[in-house]
Design brief:
Largest sheet: none
Radius of gyration: 27 Å
Number of domains: 3
Distance between the termini: 30 Å
Order of helices and strands: HHHHHHHHHH
Number of helices: 10
Number of strands: 0
Amino acid sequence: MMLRLYRKLSVRMFGWLARITENSFSSIEPQLRSAGISMLLRTWVSIVYMTVFLVYSISLALVLSLHLVIGFEGIEMIYYIIFVPVLTASLAFLTIYLYPAQKAKSAAKSIESNLPFALIHMSALSSSGIPPEFMFELLSRFREYGEMSRQMALVSRNIKTFGMSSVAALANVASTTPSKTLKQILNGIASIIERGGNLEYYLNEMSEKTLFDYRMRREKYSKTLSTLSDVYTALLITAPLMLISVVVMMNMIGGDIFGLGIGESMILMIGFVVAANVIYLAFLEMSYPGK
């Protein structure tokens, strides 16, 4: 409800600007479809402008409020008024601009991870003589397959609601799916249905191929994780302990570290360890082959 209201308000306020600049955002349109975002490009661009406007306004209001409480100096005040709202608005723009691509990438990961098992299921259903259109509908009910079940639901919807043939329904979903492997498989299934080939044999072959690729991705990820664990132990466990020992000794004999006091050095080291841990966890999440 809130999203719908926000969308209407965005279109009403910035629809005119989105209409003028829509062509500049044309690269986002395929990503919106791949990510499953049911929204026109012009509407999405309006939301981008609306969000940037709100973030800029809120940031500017916060800077002015802080000025009233703290009292910035003249040049410092101008610096905060200009750069803080612009920086936060730019970050908001990048976040929303990249969101469809990130969501499509996440959906592709989910598909690639569940595809081998879904194909094994489809092969078993096909061997029992179930027609393809019922096979897609049945598979869409298994939410354990994640994004894969949603793709099958789209195929089933195209057939049952839009009255498409199985071939046309598969081709339509293949044109928007974020997974290149699934696109190839859907086009292959459509070709076999159209030509009357052996669907069971094709599904069985593709399930074996995708299962092999799945195992290779997992093995590669395990090796990467092993290497990263060694790096983590050296940089984020051993090194901080050694630095703490040096700081303790310096605190006993007096002096500073690279011109920094003991307290400042400790704060800098803690900040580095926290930031490095965040980057490490973010990298693990991005490199994870999927659930």
